[in-house]
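As a representative case, the lines below give one protein's residues and fold tokens.
***
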Amino acid sequence: MPLAPSALSGLIEQLVRLPGIGPKSAQRLAFHLLKVPREEAAALSEAVLNLKDKTRTCRQCFNIGDEELCSVCQDPRRDRGLLCVIEEVNDLLAVEKTREFPGLYHVLGGTLSPLDGRGPDQIRGKELLNRLESGEIREVILATNPNVEGEATALYLLRLLKSLPVKVTRIARGLPMGGDLEYADEATLARALEGRRELG
């Protein structure tokens, strides 16, 4: 005979499926939800359903939003000549938090990863080419993650774009603020040296 009621076990099973949630965290969350007032649990449930029902993918950049075009693509103050290519929407949110990038985005929806069965047809490279046809974009910034898949994706996109009359750049990589040289791995330190710039 199971120790936990089926409703509790069922919720724990669903929570474990979320990224970063293990069995103990799922159990803790389930017991927390058991203790909160019904209205609070209903509000959480409604928020999840609203996310699924009311969130749309932007037809231009593949960000998420409430309308056909996301808030970034609708913003007339954005520099339409700058395009930052990122892997996922959460990368867009990270870049936006810096308040340093004035341009537009293109969300690939993943990276190339032959071992996981993700090839060029699984990322939005063709859609990127279609966006560049207008000639309005003067620079494409490849901002994929500095890992094997991100580097492979950046190289693929560079080959795809090299014949076009657009400047292609890659985000700089190096040591994090507050990091110590002695703890940096060789690849990070080498990239920091490569990405050095003139001072003064």
About this structure: Residues 38-54 form the longest helix (17 residues). The radius of gyration is 22 Å. The mean pLDDT is 89. The longest strand covers residues 79-86.
